[in-house]
Amino acid sequence: MARAALRGRLVRRLVWRAAELVGSTPETATARTLRFRVPGWPGHLAGQHVDVRLTAEDGYRTQRSYSLAGPADGEHVELTVEDVPDGEVSPYLTEIMEAGDQVEIRGPVGGWFVWRPDNDRPVLLVAGGSGIVPLMAMIRTRRQAGSRAPFRLLYSLRGPDSVYYADELRRPDPGLDVSYLYTRSAPEGVSRPAGRIMLADLAEGGWPAAHAPDCYVCGPTGFVEAAADLLLALGHAPERIRTERFGPTGG
Q1: b/e map of 110-146 (b: 16 or more CB within 10 Å)?
Q2: Rounded Cα gap, residues 136 and 27, in angstroms
Q3: Where are the alpha helices (DSSP H) in 63-207?
Q4: What average pLDDT does the segment 165-177 reach?
Q5: For residue 191, what are the contacts with CB-CB under 8 A and spacing of at least 6?
Q6: Number of compact structural domains in the chain
Q7: Nearest-5° angle of CA 21, CA 25, CA 29?
Q8: Each residue of 97-111: pLDDT tens digit?
Q9: Handedness of CA 120, 169, 239, 212 (dihedral sign)
Q10: Last residue of some domain: 62, 77, 109?
Q11: Domain, as residue range, for 147
């Protein structure tokens, strides 16, 4: 029995794998989506993340965690990375790395903040800034699987120039409703004034609590805490609110 338990732990042990950059797409002036080929990649679920490790010529190593931006796709994974000023990892990934260059990737990591396409329950996605990344993986997984689960996305961001995946989110996607909540500057013609997420935003753009949706909230810590509290105030069950937060890590 002890040997079987040990063997199970060893099988699940995450390993570092070489990842070669095969393509990239700019999302904003400071964010870039990177597509890697990772031989031996075991696959992943929408909402999981990976660790990325860089090794300098003198042997110095540093690593950061990034959410996966797309569904499982054989040996390929996609990450969307925001350039953090004075960071160690993100400036290399967004400004320097070119096709053919390699990093190391370990994962996938996480099993609670995930969405599976066999679940047809209504889904509410609440994104703050770059917190859209794992939620976009859920949207893309839904589309890839042909799921009929109805999705609603509330995307809070500073202004129209900060939108990730802008063209993709503009395209018609039956069963997906998208609302933008601008916090600093709203484009002309938008009736909602710029400001932080409010109870009315979730009441109008989200699902009623009576529909018992699965709620996924991702973004900076303050945003996530505020959005989760508002969902609770609207009567959503705590066990249906899943959160993923991030804060300063040095990039």
Answers
A1: beebbbebeeeebbbbbbbbbbbbbbbbbbbbbbeee
A2: 13
A3: 90-91, 132-145, 166-170, 199-205
A4: 96
A5: none
A6: 2
A7: 120
A8: 999 999 999 999 999
A9: negative
A10: 109
A11: 123-246
Examine the domain organization and report whether 151 and 55 are in the same domain: no
Q: Give a yes or no: residue 118 inside a domain.
A: no
24 falls within a domain:
yes
- Are 233 and 202 contained in the same domain? yes
CATH code for the domain in which residue 75 is found:
2.40.30.10
Lookup result for tokens 């802008």: 166
69 by Cβ neighbours in 10 Å (0-12 / 13-18 / 19+) ranks as buried
pTM to 2 decimal places: 0.92
| pLDDT tens-digit map of 62-77 | 999 999 999 999 999 9
Give the separation between CA 135 and CA 46, rounded to whole angstroms. Answer: 8
For 39, the token pair is: 């031989």
CATH code, domain with 132:
3.40.50.80
Give the CA dihedral 138, 143, 147, 150, nearest 10 degrees.
70
